[in-house]
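> forwarded from #structure-qc
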Protein backbone atom coordinates (compact mmCIF):
# COMPACT_ATOMS: atom_id res chain seq x y z
CA UNK A 1 0.00 0.00 0.00
CA UNK A 2 1.52 3.33 -1.05
CA UNK A 3 0.73 5.30 2.08
CA UNK A 4 3.14 7.28 4.26
CA UNK A 5 2.53 8.63 7.79
CA UNK A 6 4.09 12.10 7.37
CA UNK A 7 5.12 14.47 10.15
CA UNK A 8 1.94 16.51 9.86
CA UNK A 9 -0.56 13.69 10.24
CA UNK A 10 -3.47 14.25 12.58
CA UNK A 11 -3.56 10.50 13.07
CA UNK A 12 -1.39 7.57 12.18
CA UNK A 13 -1.90 6.94 8.48
CA UNK A 14 -0.81 3.38 9.02
CA UNK A 15 -3.99 3.02 11.04
CA UNK A 16 -6.05 4.94 8.50
CA UNK A 17 -4.93 2.53 5.80
CA UNK A 18 -6.56 -0.31 7.73
CA UNK A 19 -9.93 1.47 7.77
CA UNK A 20 -10.68 1.32 4.06
CA UNK A 21 -13.94 -0.43 3.21
CA UNK A 22 -13.37 -4.00 2.07
CA UNK A 23 -16.65 -4.31 0.20
CA UNK A 24 -16.40 -4.18 -3.63
CA UNK A 25 -17.62 -0.99 -5.17
CA UNK A 26 -20.97 -0.94 -6.91
CA UNK A 27 -19.76 -0.96 -10.51
CA UNK A 28 -16.45 -2.11 -12.01
CA UNK A 29 -14.55 1.11 -12.64
CA UNK A 30 -11.13 2.44 -11.70
CA UNK A 31 -11.51 2.69 -7.93
CA UNK A 32 -8.69 3.77 -5.63
CA UNK A 33 -8.59 1.41 -2.65
CA UNK A 34 -5.58 3.21 -1.11
CA UNK A 35 -3.92 6.56 -1.76
CA UNK A 36 -1.65 6.04 -4.75
CA UNK A 37 0.63 8.87 -3.69
CA UNK A 38 3.77 8.89 -1.59
CA UNK A 39 3.05 12.17 0.24
CA UNK A 40 -0.64 12.48 1.17
CA UNK A 41 0.22 15.52 3.29
CA UNK A 42 1.48 18.95 2.12
CA UNK A 43 4.41 21.04 3.30
CA UNK A 44 2.62 24.38 3.61
CA UNK A 45 -0.39 23.53 5.81
CA UNK A 46 -2.23 20.67 7.53
CA UNK A 47 -3.69 17.80 5.53
CA UNK A 48 -7.17 18.15 4.01
CA UNK A 49 -9.15 15.65 1.91
CA UNK A 50 -7.82 17.34 -1.24
CA UNK A 51 -4.18 16.81 -0.17
CA UNK A 52 -4.00 13.13 -1.16
CA UNK A 53 -5.35 13.98 -4.64
CA UNK A 54 -2.46 16.23 -5.75
CA UNK A 55 -0.45 13.43 -7.41
CA UNK A 56 -3.23 10.84 -7.81
CA UNK A 57 -2.88 9.37 -11.34
CA UNK A 58 -6.57 9.84 -12.22
CA UNK A 59 -7.00 13.35 -10.77
CA UNK A 60 -5.78 16.71 -12.08
CA UNK A 61 -5.55 19.21 -9.21
CA UNK A 62 -5.26 22.76 -10.57
CA UNK A 63 -4.29 24.88 -7.57
CA UNK A 64 -4.05 28.58 -6.79
CA UNK A 65 -1.17 29.00 -4.34
CA UNK A 66 -1.48 25.79 -2.32
CA UNK A 67 -4.06 23.14 -3.20
CA UNK A 68 -5.48 23.37 0.33
CA UNK A 69 -6.18 27.08 -0.23
CA UNK A 70 -8.13 26.89 -3.48
CA UNK A 71 -7.94 24.11 -6.03
CA UNK A 72 -10.04 22.99 -8.98
CA UNK A 73 -10.39 19.21 -9.19
CA UNK A 74 -10.70 17.87 -12.75
CA UNK A 75 -11.34 14.25 -13.79
CA UNK A 76 -10.82 12.94 -17.33
CA UNK A 77 -10.30 16.39 -18.78
CA UNK A 78 -13.56 17.75 -17.40
CA UNK A 79 -14.00 21.21 -15.89
CA UNK A 80 -13.82 21.76 -12.15
CA UNK A 81 -17.62 21.80 -11.75
CA UNK A 82 -17.95 18.35 -13.31
CA UNK A 83 -16.26 16.69 -10.32
CA UNK A 84 -18.44 15.72 -7.37
CA UNK A 85 -17.50 14.82 -3.78
CA UNK A 86 -19.21 12.16 -1.73
CA UNK A 87 -18.85 11.12 1.92
CA UNK A 88 -20.72 8.00 2.93
CA UNK A 89 -24.19 8.00 1.41
CA UNK A 90 -24.38 11.72 0.55
CA UNK A 91 -22.86 13.99 -2.08
CA UNK A 92 -21.48 17.24 -0.69
CA UNK A 93 -22.12 20.28 -2.85
CA UNK A 94 -21.64 24.03 -3.02
CA UNK A 95 -24.33 25.70 -5.16
CA UNK A 96 -22.40 28.96 -5.58
CA UNK A 97 -19.33 27.65 -7.41
CA UNK A 98 -17.36 24.47 -8.02
CA UNK A 99 -14.28 26.26 -6.68
CA UNK A 100 -15.63 25.36 -3.23
CA UNK A 101 -16.65 21.74 -3.86
CA UNK A 102 -13.52 20.54 -2.01
CA UNK A 103 -14.24 22.69 1.07
CA UNK A 104 -14.80 19.69 3.35
CA UNK A 105 -13.93 20.38 7.03
CA UNK A 106 -13.18 16.73 7.85
CA UNK A 107 -9.76 15.48 8.96
CA UNK A 108 -8.37 12.81 6.57
CA UNK A 109 -7.82 10.57 9.62
CA UNK A 110 -11.62 10.29 9.91
CA UNK A 111 -12.03 9.10 6.31
CA UNK A 112 -11.02 6.10 4.25
CA UNK A 113 -8.90 6.48 1.13
CA UNK A 114 -10.43 8.44 -1.77
CA UNK A 115 -12.18 6.37 -4.44
CA UNK A 116 -12.23 7.83 -7.94
CA UNK A 117 -15.52 6.87 -9.61
CA UNK A 118 -16.01 7.53 -13.30
CA UNK A 119 -18.19 6.18 -16.07
CA UNK A 120 -21.18 4.10 -15.00
CA UNK A 121 -20.32 4.24 -11.28
CA UNK A 122 -20.37 8.05 -11.39
CA UNK A 123 -23.64 8.03 -13.34
CA UNK A 124 -25.22 5.86 -10.66
CA UNK A 125 -23.68 7.30 -7.46
CA UNK A 126 -22.60 10.82 -8.42
CA UNK A 127 -24.79 13.89 -7.97
CA UNK A 128 -24.55 16.89 -10.28
CA UNK A 129 -21.22 15.58 -11.59
CA UNK A 130 -20.72 14.94 -15.30
CA UNK A 131 -17.14 13.62 -15.31
CA UNK A 132 -16.64 11.79 -12.04
CA UNK A 133 -16.90 11.67 -8.26
CA UNK A 134 -14.31 11.53 -5.48
CA UNK A 135 -15.88 9.32 -2.82
CA UNK A 136 -14.86 8.73 0.80
CA UNK A 137 -16.12 6.33 3.46
CA UNK A 138 -16.18 7.00 7.20
CA UNK A 139 -13.24 5.23 8.85
CA UNK A 140 -13.65 3.14 12.01
CA UNK A 141 -12.23 5.01 14.99
CA UNK A 142 -9.10 3.54 16.56
CA UNK A 143 -7.81 4.04 20.10
CA UNK A 144 -4.90 6.48 20.20
CA UNK A 145 -3.87 9.86 18.95
CA UNK A 146 -1.13 12.14 17.69
CA UNK A 147 0.41 15.56 18.12
CA UNK A 148 2.41 17.17 15.31
CA UNK A 149 4.25 20.47 14.85
CA UNK A 150 6.01 21.76 11.73
CA UNK A 151 7.89 24.86 10.67
CA UNK A 152 9.46 26.35 7.57
CA UNK A 153 10.52 29.59 5.81
CA UNK A 154 8.26 32.65 5.54
CA UNK A 155 7.19 32.27 9.19
CA UNK A 156 5.34 29.09 8.24
CA UNK A 157 4.15 26.92 11.12
CA UNK A 158 1.41 24.45 11.85
CA UNK A 159 0.12 22.28 14.63
CA UNK A 160 -2.28 19.34 14.60
CA UNK A 161 -3.87 17.22 17.34
CA UNK A 162 -5.96 14.05 17.10
CA UNK A 163 -7.39 11.73 19.74
CA UNK A 164 -9.61 8.67 19.43
CA UNK A 165 -11.42 6.75 22.17
CA UNK A 166 -13.06 3.32 21.88
CA UNK A 167 -15.20 1.54 24.49
CA UNK A 168 -16.91 -1.85 24.33
CA UNK A 169 -20.66 -2.03 24.79
CA UNK A 170 -22.65 -4.82 26.40
CA UNK A 171 -23.43 -6.77 23.23
CA UNK A 172 -20.79 -8.93 21.58
CA UNK A 173 -18.94 -6.99 18.88
CA UNK A 174 -20.56 -3.65 19.73
CA UNK A 175 -18.46 -0.57 20.45
CA UNK A 176 -18.97 3.14 20.99
CA UNK A 177 -16.19 5.47 19.93
CA UNK A 178 -15.40 9.15 19.55
CA UNK A 179 -12.62 11.18 18.02
CA UNK A 180 -11.61 14.82 18.07
CA UNK A 181 -9.28 16.74 15.78
CA UNK A 182 -7.92 20.29 15.76
CA UNK A 183 -5.39 21.80 13.37
CA UNK A 184 -4.09 25.23 12.42
CA UNK A 185 -1.43 26.76 10.16
CA UNK A 186 -0.17 30.18 9.13
CA UNK A 187 2.46 31.65 6.83
CA UNK A 188 3.57 34.98 5.38
CA UNK A 189 3.56 33.20 2.02
CA UNK A 190 6.23 32.35 -0.56
CA UNK A 191 5.42 35.49 -2.61
CA UNK A 192 4.13 38.94 -1.74
CA UNK A 193 0.46 38.90 -0.68
CA UNK A 194 0.51 35.08 -0.61
CA UNK A 195 -0.09 34.70 3.13
CA UNK A 196 -2.57 32.33 4.78
CA UNK A 197 -4.16 31.53 8.13
CA UNK A 198 -6.12 28.27 8.38
CA UNK A 199 -7.92 26.51 11.22
CA UNK A 200 -10.11 23.42 11.57
CA UNK A 201 -11.85 21.60 14.41
CA UNK A 202 -14.09 18.55 14.19
CA UNK A 203 -15.49 15.73 16.27
CA UNK A 204 -17.32 12.49 15.67
CA UNK A 205 -19.41 10.00 17.65
CA UNK A 206 -19.48 6.44 16.28
CA UNK A 207 -21.38 3.25 17.14
CA UNK A 208 -20.09 0.02 15.59
CA UNK A 209 -21.66 -3.41 15.50
CA UNK A 210 -20.53 -6.71 13.98
CA UNK A 211 -21.84 -5.62 10.55
CA UNK A 212 -22.77 -1.95 10.89
CA UNK A 213 -21.37 1.49 11.62
CA UNK A 214 -23.12 4.77 12.45
CA UNK A 215 -21.27 8.12 12.42
CA UNK A 216 -22.39 11.53 13.67
CA UNK A 217 -19.97 14.34 12.72
CA UNK A 218 -19.69 18.11 13.20
CA UNK A 219 -16.82 20.21 11.90
CA UNK A 220 -15.85 23.81 11.18
CA UNK A 221 -13.04 25.20 9.01
CA UNK A 222 -11.89 28.81 8.52
CA UNK A 223 -9.45 29.83 5.78
CA UNK A 224 -8.11 33.30 5.03
CA UNK A 225 -5.54 33.56 2.25
CA UNK A 226 -4.28 35.82 -0.50
CA UNK A 227 -2.70 35.43 -3.93
CA UNK A 228 -2.03 37.76 -6.84
CA UNK A 229 -4.30 36.84 -9.77
CA UNK A 230 -6.24 34.40 -7.63
CA UNK A 231 -9.19 34.46 -10.06
CA UNK A 232 -8.50 37.33 -12.50
CA UNK A 233 -5.49 38.08 -14.77
CA UNK A 234 -5.07 41.76 -13.78
CA UNK A 235 -2.15 41.53 -11.30
CA UNK A 236 -4.38 42.44 -8.37
CA UNK A 237 -3.69 41.26 -4.77
CA UNK A 238 -6.85 39.20 -4.35
CA UNK A 239 -7.96 37.40 -1.19
CA UNK A 240 -10.51 34.89 0.09
CA UNK A 241 -12.04 34.39 3.52
CA UNK A 242 -13.92 31.07 3.71
CA UNK A 243 -15.85 29.63 6.65
CA UNK A 244 -17.37 26.17 6.25
CA UNK A 245 -19.64 24.36 8.70
CA UNK A 246 -20.67 20.73 8.17
CA UNK A 247 -22.92 18.45 10.22
CA UNK A 248 -23.48 14.91 8.92
CA UNK A 249 -24.87 11.54 9.98
CA UNK A 250 -24.30 8.23 8.18
CA UNK A 251 -25.34 4.61 8.72
CA UNK A 252 -23.88 1.63 6.84
CA UNK A 253 -24.70 -2.07 7.19
CA UNK A 254 -22.85 -4.98 5.57
CA UNK A 255 -25.31 -7.59 4.26
CA UNK A 256 -22.66 -10.11 3.21
CA UNK A 257 -21.25 -11.22 -0.17
CA UNK A 258 -20.51 -7.60 -1.07
CA UNK A 259 -24.09 -6.44 -0.50
CA UNK A 260 -24.75 -3.44 1.74
CA UNK A 261 -27.11 -0.59 2.51
CA UNK A 262 -26.24 2.90 3.73
CA UNK A 263 -28.13 6.11 4.41
CA UNK A 264 -27.10 9.59 5.46
CA UNK A 265 -27.99 13.27 5.74
CA UNK A 266 -26.08 16.52 6.11
CA UNK A 267 -26.25 20.27 6.62
CA UNK A 268 -23.56 22.53 5.12
CA UNK A 269 -23.07 26.28 5.35
CA UNK A 270 -20.31 28.04 3.41
CA UNK A 271 -19.52 31.74 3.83
CA UNK A 272 -17.20 33.45 1.36
CA UNK A 273 -15.79 36.97 1.38
CA UNK A 274 -13.78 37.52 -1.83
CA UNK A 275 -11.81 40.72 -2.47
CA UNK A 276 -10.48 41.64 -5.92
CA UNK A 277 -8.12 44.10 -4.21
CA UNK A 278 -7.61 43.24 -0.54
CA UNK A 279 -6.30 46.77 0.18
CA UNK A 280 -9.03 48.78 -1.57
CA UNK A 281 -11.53 50.76 0.52
CA UNK A 282 -14.51 48.45 0.84
CA UNK A 283 -17.17 50.81 2.13
CA UNK A 284 -20.08 49.57 4.24
CA UNK A 285 -20.54 46.30 2.28
CA UNK A 286 -17.91 44.09 0.68
CA UNK A 287 -18.64 43.76 -3.04
CA UNK A 288 -18.34 39.95 -3.17
CA UNK A 289 -19.90 38.29 -0.15
CA UNK A 290 -21.75 35.01 -0.49
CA UNK A 291 -23.35 32.53 1.90
CA UNK A 292 -24.82 29.21 0.81
CA UNK A 293 -26.85 26.66 2.74
CA UNK A 294 -27.33 23.06 1.62
CA UNK A 295 -29.39 20.30 3.19
CA UNK A 296 -29.23 16.85 1.67
CA UNK A 297 -29.91 13.19 2.26
CA UNK A 298 -29.36 9.93 0.47
CA UNK A 299 -29.55 6.16 0.51
CA UNK A 300 -27.79 3.62 -1.66
CA UNK A 301 -27.07 -0.08 -1.63
CA UNK A 302 -26.45 -3.36 -3.34
CA UNK A 303 -28.88 -6.23 -2.75
CA UNK A 304 -29.27 -9.68 -4.26
CA UNK A 305 -32.81 -10.78 -5.14
CA UNK A 306 -32.66 -14.31 -6.51
CA UNK A 307 -30.64 -14.37 -9.71
CA UNK A 308 -30.56 -10.56 -9.95
CA UNK A 309 -28.55 -8.09 -7.88
CA UNK A 310 -29.98 -4.57 -7.58
CA UNK A 311 -27.70 -1.55 -7.34
CA UNK A 312 -29.85 1.38 -6.26
CA UNK A 313 -29.63 4.91 -4.91
CA UNK A 314 -31.64 8.03 -4.13
CA UNK A 315 -30.50 11.53 -3.20
CA UNK A 316 -32.32 14.76 -2.46
CA UNK A 317 -30.79 18.18 -1.97
CA UNK A 318 -32.02 21.70 -1.30
CA UNK A 319 -29.89 24.85 -1.47
CA UNK A 320 -30.14 28.58 -0.85
CA UNK A 321 -27.90 31.54 -1.74
CA UNK A 322 -27.48 34.95 -0.11
CA UNK A 323 -25.11 37.27 -1.99
CA UNK A 324 -24.14 40.91 -2.41
CA UNK A 325 -23.23 40.45 -6.10
CA UNK A 326 -24.93 37.31 -7.49
CA UNK A 327 -28.29 39.03 -7.86
CA UNK A 328 -28.99 39.08 -11.60
CA UNK A 329 -30.43 35.59 -12.02
CA UNK A 330 -33.95 34.21 -11.89
CA UNK A 331 -33.78 32.45 -8.49
CA UNK A 332 -31.60 31.95 -5.40
CA UNK A 333 -32.86 28.64 -4.06
CA UNK A 334 -33.33 25.25 -5.65
CA UNK A 335 -34.14 21.63 -4.90
CA UNK A 336 -32.85 18.58 -6.76
CA UNK A 337 -33.50 14.86 -6.64
CA UNK A 338 -31.81 11.84 -8.18
CA UNK A 339 -32.97 8.22 -8.36
CA UNK A 340 -31.03 5.28 -9.78
CA UNK A 341 -31.69 1.60 -10.33
CA UNK A 342 -29.24 -0.67 -12.16
CA UNK A 343 -30.00 -4.42 -12.05
CA UNK A 344 -27.10 -6.85 -12.53
CA UNK A 345 -27.32 -10.39 -13.84
CA UNK A 346 -24.35 -12.78 -13.77
CA UNK A 347 -24.17 -15.79 -16.08
CA UNK A 348 -22.22 -18.44 -14.13
CA UNK A 349 -19.66 -20.26 -16.24
CA UNK A 350 -15.93 -20.92 -16.39
CA UNK A 351 -15.66 -17.30 -17.55
CA UNK A 352 -18.34 -15.33 -15.71
CA UNK A 353 -20.25 -12.63 -17.59
CA UNK A 354 -22.13 -9.89 -15.76
CA UNK A 355 -24.72 -7.77 -17.57
CA UNK A 356 -25.90 -4.42 -16.21
CA UNK A 357 -28.69 -2.24 -17.55
CA UNK A 358 -30.67 0.46 -15.81
CA UNK A 359 -31.22 4.18 -15.59
CA UNK A 360 -31.04 7.26 -13.41
CA UNK A 361 -33.59 10.05 -13.07
CA UNK A 362 -32.52 13.64 -12.30
CA UNK A 363 -35.05 16.37 -11.58
CA UNK A 364 -35.28 19.88 -10.13
CA UNK A 365 -37.93 22.45 -9.33
CA UNK A 366 -35.94 24.91 -11.50
CA UNK A 367 -35.33 22.75 -14.56
CA UNK A 368 -36.88 19.82 -16.36
CA UNK A 369 -36.05 16.24 -15.37
CA UNK A 370 -34.17 13.70 -17.46
CA UNK A 371 -33.93 9.92 -17.66
CA UNK A 372 -30.36 8.71 -18.34
CA UNK A 373 -29.44 5.14 -19.37
CA UNK A 374 -26.62 3.09 -17.83
CA UNK A 375 -25.50 -0.21 -19.37
CA UNK A 376 -22.44 -2.44 -19.37
CA UNK A 377 -21.01 -5.91 -19.69
CA UNK A 378 -18.13 -7.36 -17.69
CA UNK A 379 -16.16 -10.54 -18.33
CA UNK A 380 -14.13 -12.34 -15.65
CA UNK A 381 -11.98 -14.95 -17.45
CA UNK A 382 -11.63 -18.47 -16.11
CA UNK A 383 -9.35 -19.00 -13.12
CA UNK A 384 -5.83 -20.14 -13.93
CA UNK A 385 -5.46 -18.00 -17.02
CA UNK A 386 -1.97 -16.67 -17.77
CA UNK A 387 -0.97 -13.16 -16.56
CA UNK A 388 -1.36 -11.95 -20.16
CA UNK A 389 -5.11 -12.51 -19.85
CA UNK A 390 -6.88 -9.63 -18.04
CA UNK A 391 -8.45 -10.34 -14.67
CA UNK A 392 -11.49 -8.30 -15.76
CA UNK A 393 -12.66 -6.84 -19.07
CA UNK A 394 -15.55 -4.40 -19.33
CA UNK A 395 -17.43 -2.20 -21.79
CA UNK A 396 -20.02 0.31 -20.61
CA UNK A 397 -22.13 3.28 -21.68
CA UNK A 398 -23.62 5.87 -19.35
CA UNK A 399 -25.13 9.32 -19.26
CA UNK A 400 -25.06 11.92 -16.47
CA UNK A 401 -26.59 15.39 -16.12
CA UNK A 402 -26.02 18.43 -13.94
CA UNK A 403 -27.23 22.00 -13.41
CA UNK A 404 -25.09 25.19 -13.38
CA UNK A 405 -24.01 26.92 -10.18
CA UNK A 406 -25.20 30.36 -9.08
CA UNK A 407 -22.00 32.17 -10.11
CA UNK A 408 -22.76 31.25 -13.72
CA UNK A 409 -26.52 31.83 -13.42
CA UNK A 410 -26.69 34.97 -11.27
CA UNK A 411 -23.64 37.06 -12.24
CA UNK A 412 -24.55 40.08 -14.34
CA UNK A 413 -24.38 39.37 -18.06
CA UNK A 414 -23.26 42.92 -18.92
CA UNK A 415 -21.06 44.20 -16.06
CA UNK A 416 -18.50 43.12 -13.48
CA UNK A 417 -15.48 40.82 -13.45
CA UNK A 418 -17.58 37.69 -14.01
CA UNK A 419 -20.31 37.72 -16.67
CA UNK A 420 -23.08 35.16 -16.17
CA UNK A 421 -26.00 33.83 -18.16
CA UNK A 422 -29.40 33.22 -16.47
CA UNK A 423 -30.55 31.03 -19.38
CA UNK A 424 -27.99 28.26 -18.88
CA UNK A 425 -29.73 24.91 -18.45
CA UNK A 426 -29.17 21.24 -17.77
CA UNK A 427 -25.86 19.87 -19.01
CA UNK A 428 -25.53 16.37 -20.44
CA UNK A 429 -22.52 14.04 -20.51
CA UNK A 430 -22.46 10.85 -22.60
CA UNK A 431 -19.63 8.43 -21.79
CA UNK A 432 -18.52 5.29 -23.65
CA UNK A 433 -15.54 3.32 -22.39
CA UNK A 434 -13.72 0.02 -22.40
CA UNK A 435 -11.37 -1.13 -19.67
CA UNK A 436 -9.28 -4.04 -18.45
CA UNK A 437 -7.34 -4.99 -15.34
CA UNK A 438 -4.32 -7.27 -15.02
CA UNK A 439 -3.24 -8.45 -11.60
CA UNK A 440 -0.47 -10.58 -10.13
CA UNK A 441 0.84 -11.11 -6.61
CA UNK A 442 3.00 -7.96 -6.54
CA UNK A 443 1.72 -5.82 -9.41
CA UNK A 444 -1.42 -4.65 -11.17
CA UNK A 445 -2.25 -2.70 -14.35
CA UNK A 446 -5.49 -0.84 -15.01
CA UNK A 447 -6.30 0.56 -18.45
CA UNK A 448 -9.32 2.47 -19.75
CA UNK A 449 -10.05 4.03 -23.15
CA UNK A 450 -13.01 6.43 -23.07
CA UNK A 451 -14.91 8.97 -25.16
CA UNK A 452 -17.16 11.56 -23.48
CA UNK A 453 -19.42 14.08 -25.18
CA UNK A 454 -20.57 17.05 -23.10
CA UNK A 455 -23.49 19.13 -24.31
CA UNK A 456 -24.27 22.63 -22.94
CA UNK A 457 -21.28 22.41 -20.62
CA UNK A 458 -20.66 25.69 -18.76
CA UNK A 459 -17.16 27.06 -19.36
CA UNK A 460 -15.60 30.41 -18.42
CA UNK A 461 -14.03 32.09 -21.45
CA UNK A 462 -12.37 35.36 -22.35
CA UNK A 463 -11.89 37.70 -25.31
CA UNK A 464 -8.80 39.79 -25.93
CA UNK A 465 -9.36 43.36 -24.77
CA UNK A 466 -12.32 42.49 -22.50
CA UNK A 467 -11.74 42.85 -18.75
CA UNK A 468 -14.14 40.08 -17.68
CA UNK A 469 -14.59 36.38 -18.10
CA UNK A 470 -17.93 35.05 -19.38
CA UNK A 471 -19.97 31.91 -18.75
CA UNK A 472 -20.59 30.25 -22.12
CA UNK A 473 -22.12 26.93 -23.10
CA UNK A 474 -19.82 24.61 -25.05
CA UNK A 475 -20.25 21.24 -26.72
CA UNK A 476 -17.10 19.31 -25.90
CA UNK A 477 -15.84 15.95 -27.16
CA UNK A 478 -13.08 14.37 -25.06
CA UNK A 479 -11.18 11.19 -25.91
CA UNK A 480 -8.74 9.75 -23.42
CA UNK A 481 -6.56 6.87 -22.31
CA UNK A 482 -5.79 6.14 -18.65
CA UNK A 483 -3.10 3.70 -17.47
CA UNK A 484 -2.09 2.92 -13.88
CA UNK A 485 0.69 0.49 -12.93
CA UNK A 486 1.19 -0.48 -9.28
CA UNK A 487 3.96 -2.60 -7.77
CA UNK A 488 4.49 -3.58 -4.12
CA UNK A 489 7.80 -5.02 -2.90
CA UNK A 490 9.54 -5.55 0.41
CA UNK A 491 11.71 -2.46 0.13
CA UNK A 492 9.57 -0.18 -2.01
CA UNK A 493 6.09 0.71 -3.29
CA UNK A 494 5.75 2.18 -6.78
CA UNK A 495 2.84 3.62 -8.78
CA UNK A 496 3.05 4.93 -12.36
CA UNK A 497 0.18 6.73 -14.05
CA UNK A 498 -0.26 8.00 -17.60
CA UNK A 499 -3.15 9.96 -19.13
CA UNK A 500 -3.59 11.09 -22.74
CA UNK A 501 -6.41 13.48 -23.67
CA UNK A 502 -7.70 15.00 -26.90
CA UNK A 503 -10.52 17.56 -27.13
CA UNK A 504 -12.74 19.18 -29.73
CA UNK A 505 -14.79 22.23 -28.63
CA UNK A 506 -17.76 24.02 -30.22
CA UNK A 507 -18.84 27.27 -28.54
CA UNK A 508 -21.85 27.64 -30.86
CA UNK A 509 -20.76 30.90 -32.43
CA UNK A 510 -19.87 32.68 -29.19
CA UNK A 511 -16.94 35.07 -29.46
CA UNK A 512 -14.21 33.18 -27.58
CA UNK A 513 -10.44 33.75 -27.72
CA UNK A 514 -9.56 31.33 -24.95
CA UNK A 515 -10.82 29.14 -22.12
CA UNK A 516 -9.86 29.14 -18.45
CA UNK A 517 -11.10 25.60 -17.78
CA UNK A 518 -12.52 23.41 -20.57
CA UNK A 519 -9.42 23.87 -22.73
CA UNK A 520 -6.96 23.95 -19.80
CA UNK A 521 -5.89 20.31 -19.86
CA UNK A 522 -2.82 18.11 -20.17
CA UNK A 523 -2.50 16.27 -23.46
CA UNK A 524 0.04 14.03 -21.76
CA UNK A 525 0.40 13.57 -18.00
CA UNK A 526 2.75 11.12 -16.30
CA UNK A 527 2.86 10.56 -12.54
CA UNK A 528 5.21 8.46 -10.42
CA UNK A 529 4.98 7.79 -6.69
CA UNK A 530 7.73 5.97 -4.82
CA UNK A 531 8.13 5.01 -1.18
CA UNK A 532 11.60 3.51 -0.69
CA UNK A 533 12.46 1.96 2.68
CA UNK A 534 16.18 2.66 3.01
CA UNK A 535 16.53 0.99 6.41
CA UNK A 536 14.25 0.12 9.34
CA UNK A 537 12.58 3.37 10.37
CA UNK A 538 14.02 5.39 7.48
CA UNK A 539 12.31 5.99 4.14
CA UNK A 540 12.20 8.35 1.18
CA UNK A 541 8.83 9.39 -0.29
CA UNK A 542 8.79 10.87 -3.78
CA UNK A 543 5.89 12.12 -5.92
CA UNK A 544 6.69 13.31 -9.44
CA UNK A 545 4.44 14.67 -12.19
CA UNK A 546 5.39 15.50 -15.77
CA UNK A 547 2.85 17.12 -18.10
CA UNK A 548 2.56 18.63 -21.57
CA UNK A 549 -0.31 21.11 -21.37
CA UNK A 550 -2.49 22.33 -24.21
CA UNK A 551 -1.36 25.83 -25.25
CA UNK A 552 -3.41 28.66 -23.75
CA UNK A 553 -3.16 32.37 -24.72
CA UNK A 554 -3.55 33.42 -21.06
CA UNK A 555 -0.73 31.23 -19.72
CA UNK A 556 2.54 33.03 -19.11
CA UNK A 557 5.57 30.82 -19.32
CA UNK A 558 5.98 27.18 -20.38
CA UNK A 559 3.32 24.65 -21.32
CA UNK A 560 5.47 21.87 -19.86
CA UNK A 561 5.79 21.09 -16.17
CA UNK A 562 7.89 18.92 -13.88
CA UNK A 563 6.43 19.06 -10.37
CA UNK A 564 7.81 17.02 -7.47
CA UNK A 565 7.40 16.58 -3.72
CA UNK A 566 10.01 14.64 -1.75
CA UNK A 567 10.20 13.80 1.95
CA UNK A 568 12.65 11.99 4.20
CA UNK A 569 11.03 10.35 7.23
CA UNK A 570 12.85 8.92 10.25
CA UNK A 571 11.23 6.92 13.06
CA UNK A 572 14.00 6.34 15.63
CA UNK A 573 13.87 2.94 17.29
CA UNK A 574 14.87 4.44 20.65
CA UNK A 575 11.83 6.75 20.68
CA UNK A 576 8.71 4.73 19.83
CA UNK A 577 5.92 6.83 18.34
CA UNK A 578 8.21 9.66 17.21
CA UNK A 579 8.63 10.56 13.55
CA UNK A 580 10.82 13.35 12.17
CA UNK A 581 10.19 14.51 8.60
CA UNK A 582 11.87 16.92 6.21
CA UNK A 583 9.91 17.79 3.05
CA UNK A 584 10.39 19.85 -0.10
CA UNK A 585 7.49 20.72 -2.41
CA UNK A 586 7.95 21.89 -6.01
CA UNK A 587 11.45 20.45 -5.84
CA UNK A 588 12.41 21.71 -9.30
CA UNK A 589 10.93 25.18 -8.62
CA UNK A 590 8.61 24.94 -11.61
CA UNK A 591 6.85 28.18 -12.62
CA UNK A 592 4.15 26.42 -14.62
CA UNK A 593 0.71 28.06 -14.19
CA UNK A 594 -1.75 25.27 -13.39
CA UNK A 595 -4.59 27.74 -13.94
CA UNK A 596 -3.74 30.21 -16.75
CA UNK A 597 -2.52 33.61 -15.46
CA UNK A 598 -2.33 32.39 -11.84
CA UNK A 599 1.29 32.52 -10.59
CA UNK A 600 2.78 29.20 -9.51
CA UNK A 601 3.85 28.68 -5.91
CA UNK A 602 7.67 28.48 -5.72
CA UNK A 603 9.70 25.81 -3.94
CA UNK A 604 8.72 25.38 -0.27
CA UNK A 605 10.34 23.55 2.66
CA UNK A 606 9.09 22.15 5.96
CA UNK A 607 10.57 20.22 8.89
CA UNK A 608 8.33 18.61 11.46
CA UNK A 609 8.05 16.17 14.32
CA UNK A 610 5.06 14.04 15.27
CA UNK A 611 4.33 11.94 18.35
CA UNK A 612 1.81 9.13 18.07
CA UNK A 613 0.43 7.08 20.92
Amino acid sequence: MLLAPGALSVAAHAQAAETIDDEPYELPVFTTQAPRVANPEPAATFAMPVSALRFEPLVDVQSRNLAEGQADIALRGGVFEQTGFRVGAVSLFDPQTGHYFAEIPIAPAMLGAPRISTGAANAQLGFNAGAGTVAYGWAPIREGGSLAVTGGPDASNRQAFYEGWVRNLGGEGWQVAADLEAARSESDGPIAYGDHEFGRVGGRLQVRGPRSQTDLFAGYQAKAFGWVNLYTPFNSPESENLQTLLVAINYRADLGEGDFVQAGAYYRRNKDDYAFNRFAPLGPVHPFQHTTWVEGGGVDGRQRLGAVRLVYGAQVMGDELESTSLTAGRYRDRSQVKLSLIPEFTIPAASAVTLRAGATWDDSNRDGGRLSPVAGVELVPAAGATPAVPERIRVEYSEATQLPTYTALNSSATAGLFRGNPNLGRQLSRNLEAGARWHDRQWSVDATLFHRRDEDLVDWTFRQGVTARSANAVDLATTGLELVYTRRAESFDLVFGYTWLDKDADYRGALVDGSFYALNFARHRLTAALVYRIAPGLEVRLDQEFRLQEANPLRRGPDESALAAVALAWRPKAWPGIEVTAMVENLWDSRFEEVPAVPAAPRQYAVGIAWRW
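QC bot note: Helices lie at 13-16, 119-125, 406-410. Residues 3-33 have pLDDT under 50 and may be disordered.
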